[in-house]
Every structure is written in structure tokens, then in C-alpha cells.
Amino acid sequence: MLATVRDGKLVHIDSDPAPDHPNRLQLRACLRGRSYRQIVYHPDRLRQPLKRVGRRGEGKFAPIAWDEALSLIAEQTRRITERYGALSHFVMPASGMMGVNKGADWARRLLGLYCGDYLGKYGSYSWGQTAYATELTYGTVYSANHVSDLVNSRLIILAGHNPAETIFGTNGMMHYRSAKEAGARLVVIDPRYTDTAATLADEWIPILPSTDAALFAAMAYVILTEGLQNQPFLDRYCMGFDEAHMPPGIPGGLSFRSYLLGGAGEPAKTPAWAESMTGVPAERIVRLAREYALAQPAALIQGQGLQRHTNGEQTARMGIALAAMTGNVGVHGGWASGAAGWPETVVLDRIPSQGGAIQIPFFLWTDAIFRGAEMTAEVDLIRGADRLPGNIKCLWNLAGNVLINQHANINRTAALLADESLVEFILTSDLFLTPSARFSDIVLPATSYFERPDIVQPWNQGDYIIYMNQVLEPLAGCRNEYDWMSELADRLGCGADFTLGRDITDWLRACCAITARRHTDFPGFDRFREQGIFRTEINGPGVAFERQISDPERCPFATPSGKIEIFSRKLFDRGEPARVPAVPQYVACDEGPAPTAEERFPLQLIGWHSRNRTHSTHENNPWMNEVQPRQLWINPADAARRGVTDGANVRVWNQRGSIQVIARVTPRVLPGVVALPEGGWWRPSAGGEDLGGAINILTTHEPSPMSHSNPQNTTRVQVQKMRV
Amino acid sequence: MATQYGFHVDMRFCTGCHACVVACKELHDLPVGLNLRHVFEIEGGAYDTTTRASAAGVFAYYISMSCNHCTEPLCVKNCPTGALFKRQEDGVVIADSSLCVGCRYCTWSCPYEAPQFNPLTGTTLKCDLCVDRLMEGMEPACVAACPLRLIHVGPIEELRERYGGTAAAPVLPDPSITNPNIRYTLHPDALRQDGVRVVKPPVPEAVRPAHGEGSLVLFTLLVQAALGATGLALILTLRDQPGAGPGQGLVRASALLLSVGLVASLWHLGTPRRALGALRRLRTSWLSREVLGTGAFAGATLLLAGVPPGLPIYPAGLWIAVFLGLAAVVCMVRTYQSTIRPAWNGPRTPALFFSACATLGPALAALLLAVGAFEADPGVLPTLWAVALAGGGAQVGAQAGARLLLTVTGIGGLMLAGCPGLGGFTTALLIVGAVLLIGSEALGRIHFFAGAPPLRVGGDA
User: Fold this and answer.
1) How many CB atoms lie within 10 A of CB A556?
2) Of B12, B14, B17, which to mutate for an interface test with A (greatest number of A Cβ within 10 Å)?
3) Measuring CA to CA, which of A111, A133, A433, B355 is 20 to 30 A from A381?
4) For the residues A317-334, what does the mean pLDDT come to?
5) Do residue B58 and residue A667 have CB atoms under 8 angstroms apart?
6) Closest residue by Cα to residue A629 from B18, B415, B96
7) Cα dist from A592 to A174, A408, A582, A588, A709, whole Å
8) What is the pLDDT of residue B62?
């Protein structure tokens, strides 16, 4: 971004002035970035440290001086570390600041130096399930081709992928546009008629949430029974597709092929079988399967929302099995499916820290609050140790709203955090008094992107890194995390080790050392800082697993068998074949499609990333709320049954909580499904009902079975018109 | 004109992200609720739950639109101040806020919602195609912001040659109205009309207009009442001549009403201190002419109010005042007919306005009679009845609906008041009849302003 500052005030934001070139597309800021002045100068910006004075979560605070705040933090850090040990500290997952100069990283550095360790985590709310499942199947999460390679695809199936609204990479949609203009056919599978469907889709296949694996299984069945699979590919590169390619010592009948064909009391995974669960007509499943198998090459692209279900790991692995069956792995125009991660193009170091080797699955941090001492590697998938030594006692929440808002089942989290005998100290640094900040003991006023220097990496496949020059002095009273943590480190006796005598710019320079070594075209730190951006040359679109396919002997997949593990011995060994089968299977979810319309909670609820927010950031940005107000999407059929009209106030509720929100009656969502964008801030009324459209009031904290990740799109609710 | 500039927008790939809207908003620092570019969301079709097969029936697409810098811009033609003008060199329609009185007439004249009234400044602003940026070799903010590079700016003929496209689609206002310089490459679903609707998100709090059209309800009714009263005065004077006419009270009342009405009209303006600027476009703008006509009418009645009816120039003065009043109301009719509100374009507007003259004049006279402001004369009442009945008849033409009952009852009241031997009830009947007539016109006028949706993207709903 280009910031224009006049008399110390940010007056205009523009973006990349470099010319737009087909091979080097201009990096255009999105609407949220363009509206950022509304955040910087928002009247609700925190301007002084706050100390909680009421009960935790009650929202009563008293302003205090920075000196007092830091004394309190130092005292609590010291006390908790001495009493409960280093692993009682947990730094919250947070995405409010995504640069190198990031509060969470500074906190980890500080804890590593002061206590020697802290409780680590693995996985993320973004893609916990598919990352786990894809790594298990391919040996890596990096299963994407470069998106510019899509021009080589003849068919692109977007399953729960919505790049138009999620903005998957700054120029992501440009590549889809190019692919479409190059003649690719596009099919969108989604319960919503997304903006992606509106602009790209030749065909929209609406599907009931949490049933995608059934659709994929039936496609695999059609491909198999019609003999359309790429058998040489399966024979050569895959483990466990059929009985002839199983690991030694596994009983018969457990291959993927056996699962598809059924028998011995198990149904065959026919299109008719899938229709009853997915709501997709059988003939359409047959057609889609044939299209996918015959349109070589074809890309089956899974969105991350697709895996945020109680059976999301199965969907991720089932998609990979389809890609393997059709030989679309490791080829131009194909797509290996799964997580579709992409290794960073421009390499950059992070702020170094020590510790964090003992890790919990990210989604289990609330469990670690009250049963950490019971959590084990075997049951809870703890990494780095057989079990945890104790519970979490101190939460460091830096530029994050996961603490209460973005984690599932808000009412449960609120009850856990409100119990001051569990977590004894919660610290938040943020721009606003977010729902998470309200559950903190100390809240510190932070600095925005414009008030501190930073280096940011691009989201998804960008060929650049950006130097964000500090253009504004921190707003009076606000301090960036490195600034106050340096002082805190002094008080804890590790100040010199923490700063190494460096200012932030020195640290950013140090983080670029690796960039200079790895990229011969890197112009050096000073020049980089001056230009504000470094873009590197890439030699044509990269293709995942190209080497594994062309030279399997020397480049096996990074799995135990060296093959694409459609059958996973690791999963087999977990001994939970019904919940965690060793081959991808459709596992029905308790809160999947309602069996009958008479259910107490008959409607399925899904969230999505709406254009007006980045998760919960910009929720209070007036320009963004103008672009898209808070609304629940509901189909006219479901609305009519409830007397709900467009714009009416409705109550959405289930066994976990209740929300009041405005309804948008639209054919753009499937009957039986309602949709509410994620990221609305929890605003409980006096009666405990949410007025802020916070979807996590309704979502479940029960983790997915395989990776123990977040399943927020598997939720059932009821909707009712509010009496005015 | 040298070259006409305009936009081309490729609707096919517009994701409705609003980056164009926000970039424009950011550049101009616009408050919530005010945007010089809009993204319209259109949806339609339906999902058939019985067959599940027609999911493809659902459709949605977006239209990004700002000012189309029309070849025949109604906003420019109707602007009474000259604040809106079309540049000779490139055909760009510009708003000079230093001339704008904030009458909002342009916002009633544009089928594309291009001119936007800013309640904070009291003036209207609109897309200027970023001509300053163009001169510096930069693209307009919206063009430079589109993540899919779908908005293009340039000489419209070049855009037409390069991209083709059209300005006509079922959801777009008929391009023949203003001849817009916009080319759309249509979305494949843009021709569909099954269940089609423009999605209207709830309006944020801050957007509510600063003031409604209450002052115009008052202004138009007062001017029309004054014309009715002056006309009645003329009729009575002609009948009674040469003696001391009972019309003097009516003329004085008209002068008062017009003065109040003109003040009320100022209240409607965003920048009332520039009100005289509204006389600057007599050549094209009916609103300018309306302002002049009303002012002259008011001036004539004020002068006449001081002239003793016995003077020989009095009838001539009345003739002039009535003529000016008629001219003012004709201009008023044309002012509303010249907008893009279908409910105002037809014969309903003159029927409504002139019927109001005919019922409000007698109503005013009845009130004056009731308070004894002019001598009762047995010949006066039938004249009132005749005029009011003519007004009531015209109301049928104005599709007055249920409020006709009020009018009829009001006239009935005036007629009853003519019956002999009522004593004190005569006054009460006169007042009730007058109030019913006034109430009927007030209701009609409120509905006139509130029930006239503009023609815009997606129709006039």
C-alpha cells in the first residue's frame, strides 16, 4: 500500500504503483486495506492500558498507567511461572497482525528467554483438518500447483472454494479468469451460490453441508465401476487403492476399492446412495464423475471451509483419492487436491524463540485449561511429550480474537475463562476492546500497521515480500508489542537477551539475512526498505509432486511407504475404524443434515468469509459494514415456512446458544441450509442472547476425530421470526 | 464536442467485491451512506426442491456503476444553478459544489443514482471520472482498484470498438432517456428476468437523509392555495365590479401564504444562502423557472395587498397576479414532470396540482369567511362551491383514491354552510369543510412525494 501522510495524519491510501503486466500483475489492495484509515482513526481505539475491575468477562475496566500495567504483568508472569512452570503459559493463536514484527512471536521469544519454554501448538483454525490429512496422505501439505497453472486445466471443480470472497492470493481471481477465458469449464460445489459461482461457474452443484465425502465417494465409485480410473498411476504411486496394493500384515477387505464397492453388509457407494445424503441428484453425480475422469487434465480444488466439518479429514483425503484415481497429481493443469499449501516463495526468517516443542492441537487449548494435566499423546495427540505436566494458567493474547470470539462454542469458553481459578492471568494487546479483550485482566493499547515498521509475507503463492515502513507515530498512549515487551523483559531480568540491543529495524534486517542468501535478485535490505517491496522471478508455474511422479525411485513421497497413502497404516494403528478409518470414507456427522424436518434443529448452518472482514478484523469498520451488513442467508422456502421476510429480525439458536440477526431471504442458499458470515463480534444482551452475529455462539467445541481440529461448519440450528 | 469519455465494465467477472466503491470513497473521503460509485447485486431464479434438478435456475450477478456522463444528461438540464455542467472537451459531467444550492433536483433526474447529496456539506457531488488523475496520467480510482481489471475508461467510441458491450439490459434504465456513455459486457445471466430483483441491503443508520420533503409539501400546497385564492379574488372582483371587492382579504392571505411558502422552500435547500443561484439556468431548468415564477407571483400579490381595491388598476393587478401564479404552477408541474420518477411524469401531476388550487382557494376563502375577514355575501358561497367542485372533479383525474371522500365531505360542508337558519353552525361548517379540504390535499401531497420511487437500476421498485 502507498500511504499519503499530511501533517502527521494518514490522509490517503493507494496501492502498488508499478505497472500492470500480464507476467507481473499489479498488487492491488482489497477493499479492506483501502478502508484502513477507518481503523487507524476509529473513535473506539484503545488509548491507555486497562485493568479489569469487575468479574472477568463482565467488561468493567479501569485505565492505568503503562508503568503499573507492566509491573502487574511482570508480577503475574513471575508468580505463575514459579508456581505452575513454563508450560502453563500459552500464546493464543491470532491473526490480527501477520507480519514479522508480531506480538505473538515477541511473546514466545520473551517466554522462551524468561521461563525457558512455553506450551506450543500445531495446526490452525484455517486448515487444521486438511493439513493433518494431507500430510498423512502425501507426506506434505504443499499439494498445490501454482494457481497460474490453471490455464492448462480443462475442467476446474471448486469444492467449497470461494476465491472471489476469500481472496486466495492477491491476484488469485485473475488466474481463474484466465483459466476460464482459456476455455476451462468451471463447476462450483457449495451450499451457497457464492460470488465465485456467480462469476465463474458454468454449473453450480449445491450440496448439503458435511456430506462432501459422500459425493466424492460416489464419484470414485462411478469412475471405478466404469473403468475410467488411471490404474497404472494407482498401481505405481498409491498405497491401498485396491487389495493388491496394501501394506503387509493388513487384513483383507480394507482397501479403498473394497470400501467403494461395499459388500459384507456395507453398501456400495453408488450415486443413488450419495444422493440420499448429499441432496445432489444421482445422474448429476454420474455426469460429474465422468467429466472429471475424462477431462484430462482436471483440477479438483478443495476450499478450506470444506474441511471445517466434523468429518473434514475424510473429505480432504477423499478428494486426494479422486485426484490420484484420475492421475491429476504432478501434472500441469491437474491438481493434487487436499490442503493445497504452497511453500513460501520469498524466504524470510521469523523472530527467533526457544521452546514450544511440547505442543497441543491448536483447537484443544480450552481443554488444556481444565484438563491439561490429563492430556496425552495417545488420546489428545500431544506432540513432544507423552503428556502435559499441567493446565494452562496464563494466556497471552496478542492481536487476536480467538480467545472468545473465533473459537467454537463461545458460551462454553466464556464460562471456562470466567472461572478465575482456572486461567489465572489473561493479557491482551489490541487496537480495540474486542470480545476477547473483554475477557482479559490487562488490556494494552496496540499500534496499527501504519504505526510500526514490519515485513509481511503474501497470502498464498505471492512472489513477493513487503516492507511496511512506519508512516505514523503511534497514537498517543499506544505502544507496539516489541516496545513494551522490551521493558517487560527488563523487569523480568532478561532485557538484554530479549532485545540483543536491537531496535525493530535491526530485527527486520536480521530476518532478511536468509532472503539475501537465498534470492540472488534480492536488492539488499536498505534498498528493499526504500522500495517497499521485493518481488522475485519465478520460472513458470510450479507443479506439486512433479518430481515424485517423473522420478518415483529417487523422489518418493514423504510418507512412511513413499507412496500416496490412500490407506494409512498410522490411522489403522489408531484402532478406531468407525471414526478414524484407514482409507477415506464418508462418516456421517451427528449434526449433519437433519433426518427429518421435524427435528428440533432442522437447519444446517455454515459460515463464510465475507468480503467486509478479515475474520473478525474490520467488524467495527463503518465503511465495511456499509459494504455488507450482518445478515443470515435463508432460502425463500425455509423463510416462508417460518413467516420470515427479507430484512426481518430472526432468532437463530440451538442447544449451545442464541443469536438475533437480520435475515436475508435469498435463493442463493440451498433449502435446509442457513449461512452467517464468521467474524461477527459477540455482543451478549442482558438475557445472554448474542446481538452481534457471532456464529461461534452456535458452533461445537467437539474436535474432529482424526486431527482434533475445528468443525464449525457442522452445526444445526432452528430459525424463528422475532416478535417486534 | 471533441471526444466523449465514458466507462466500459465487464460484468461477467464482477464478484461484487466493492473495491471500486471503497477506492472512490477513500479518495473523496465520503461519509457512510454516500458513494459516487455503486455495486448493485442482482439475484433471481429459484431452486426446485421437488426435482433438485434446476439448481442452475438460481443466478446472481453484480453491476458496478457510477456516473455515465450521459450525452443528454437530465441532471445538467434540470440543475437550476449551473453547478452541474458537461465539459466541452471530453463530455465529462462535473459538479461544481461552489455553485450548488443543494436542491437535490439532480438526484431526482438521474436514472443511475450518480449525483449524491451530501447532508454534511449541503451540496451534491458526483463522479468526475477522476479527470484530475487522468490529467496526471493516472487511472480513475475505481479503474485502478478493480482486482479483476474489469473497469475501463476512455473515449467511448474506442471502448465500444475494443469491448463492444451495451448500455441496455432488462435491469438497467432505458438508455434512450439520457443516452449514457457506458458500455457493459453483460453477464450471461443479465438477460434473465425470472424472479429477478435488486438486493437492497439494510441502510446503515448514518445514511438517512438529513431532511425529507416536508418543506416541499408545504411549499407546493401554499403556492397552489395562493393561486386558488387569487383566482377566486379575481372572479369575485369581476362579479362585483366596480365596488369594494371582497377579494382583498384573499389577496392579502395569498401574499402571506406565498411568503411562508418561499421561506419553507429555503428550508429544503442544503445551502439556502445561495438560493438566488437557483435562477441561473432559466434557459433549461424548469426548477429555475419555477423559482422565478413563484417569486414574481409572490411579488405581485405583495404589491397588490397594499393597493386599495377601489383603484382602477386593482383588477389589472389581479389579472397579472393570477397570470403569474398560473405560470408558477405550470413551471412547478413541469419541474416534477421533468424528473425520472414515473409517478410524476404523466398527467397526474398537473391534475393534482391544479385540483389543489381549486379546492384550497375556496377552503381559504371559507376560513376567511368564518373568521369574518370579509363580508358575507350571499353570492360568494356558490362561487366557492363551483370552484371547489371543479377541483374535486380534477382530483378524480389525479387518482386521488380514498381521500376523495375527504374532499367530497369538505365541499359538502361548505354547501351545508349555505343553508339558511343555521345560526352559529354556519361558522363551524365553514371551518370543518375547509379543514377537510386542506387535509385531503395535504394527504395527497405527502403521498405524492413519498410514493414516487425513482426509475433506477432494477426498475422503479
Assistant:
1) 15
2) B17
3) A111
4) 98
5) yes
6) B18
7) 35, 17, 22, 7, 17
8) 97
E strand spans, A105-242? 120-122, 155-159, 185-189, 203-205, 238-239
Phi, psi (rounded to 5 degrees) for A439: -95, 20
ipTM value greater than 0.90: yes
Among the partner-chain residues B25, B33, B45, the one whose CB lies closest to the CB of A667 is B45
**B15 and A173 in contact by Cβ < 8 A?**
yes
How, if at all, do strands A716-721 and A649-654 pair?
Answer: antiparallel
Percent of chain A whose pLDDT exceeds 70 = 100
How far is Cα B283 from Cα B281, in angstroms, rounded to an integer? 5
Q: Which amino acid is at A437?
A: A
Q: Which residues contact A353 (CB under 8 A, 6 or more apart)?
A: A105, A108, A109, A111, A112, A113
pLDDT band at B378 (very low <50, low <70, confident <90, very high): low
Give, in order, the Cα–Cα distances in Å from A156 to each of A172, A223, A327. 14, 17, 15
Q: Do residue A174 and residue B149 have CB atoms under 8 angstroms apart?
A: yes
DSSP one-letter code for A160: S
Q: Rounded CA gap, A317 and A335, in Å?
A: 14
Model pTM score: 0.94
Report pLDDT for B50. 61
Cα A416 to Cα A701: distance, rounded to the nearest angstrom: 12
Among A545-559, B19-33, B401-415, the minimum mean pLDDT is found in B401-415
Can you say whether the dihedral through the CA atoms of A133, A139, A142, A144 is positive or negative?
A: negative
Mean pLDDT of B30-52: 87
> Mean pLDDT over all residues of chain A?
96
Residue of chain A whose alpha carbon sits nearest to that of B18: A31
With beta carbons under 8 A apart, name residues in chain B contacting A37. Answer: 26
Residue A83: pLDDT above 60?
Answer: yes
Kindly determine whether residue A666 and residue B43, on different chains, have CB atoms separated by under 8 Å. Answer: yes
Distance in Å, alpha carbon of A646 to nearest chain B alpha carbon: 10
A225-261 burial by CB neighbour count: b if 16+ within 10 A, else e? Answer: eeebbbeebbeebbbbbbeebbbeeeeeebbbbbbbb
In 3D space, the residue among A143, A126, A179 whose CA is nearest the CA of residue A301 turns out to be A143
Q: How far is A534 from chain B (nearest CA, A)?
A: 20
Nearest CA in chain A to B34: A626
Q: What is the distance in angstroms between the Cα of A195 and the nearest Cα belonging to chain B? A: 5
Residue B23: which of A34, A177, A664 has the nearest Cβ?
A34
In what helix (H) or strand (E) does residue A63 lie, and over which residues does it extend? strand A61-63
Q: Do A637 and B49 touch (CB under 8 A)?
A: yes
**A204 vs B contacts (CB less than 8 Å):** 55-56, 58
Single out the residue of A380, A432, A375, A381 nearest to residue A405, CA to CA.
A432
Q: Which residues of A touch B50 (CB under 8 A)?
A: none
Q: Which amino acid is at B436?
A: L
- Which residue of chain B is at minimal alpha-carbon distance from A275? B52
A387 DSSP assignment: B
> Of the candidates A622, A621, A633, A640, which has an alpha carbon nearest to the alpha carbon of residue A695?
A633
Burial A560-582 (b: 16+ CB within 10 A, else e): ebbbbbbbbbebbebeeeeebbb
Give A280's contacts in chain B (Cβ within 8 Å). 52
Q: Grid coordinates in use for B214? A: 416536508
**Are A402 and A125 a contacting pair, CB within 8 Å?**
yes
Pairing of strands B182-185, B5-10: parallel
